[in-house]
Amino acid sequence: MPLFNSPEPSFDAVVIGAGALGLCAAAELRRRGRRVAVVDPGGVNASAVAAGMIAPAMECAIDDLSPEAAQVLRRARDLWPAFAEATGVRLYGDLAEWRGGDVAELAARMKTLSFQPEYDAASARLTTHEDAKVDPPQALKALAQGLTVIEARALRMAPDALGWRVETTAGAVRAEHLILATG
Fold first, then answer.
1. pLDDT at residue 1 in the model
2. H helix or E strand, kind and range, residue 37
């Protein structure tokens, strides 16, 4: 039995995937006045069990990223406070800590990328106040507020003269734009 009253409801955008990335994109589009639907089969996804880190300092050091990548991650982190406030996501500016491995090397990488780590060689402890985190279950719930979430599997997507036609297990939907956020 189809979920929809009309044969193929239309949206400005359809997002496939209700993890953190998909819901962030959908929530921001909705904030900007767009009609958005999210298609997701439901259940637990990777975002629901993730650590919720927004961690440019630690990520850059651990992954040995370039200065350009560090700048991108810093800019993304700096956008979070306003986005969190607008969407009801609780953002925590907790101390990020790393122990074990070559902590001195990680501290050196952070400094090279202009982060300000605190490194205690005696305890092999590296910390930074430049990272943040969210509580994933709370964030996902807040981001989904007010969105049209279609609990279904996306079966096929095809472009046409009007944008995109997305066939789901609950029926077809149309959208001008399609965002794939399936992890």
1. 41
2. strand 36-40
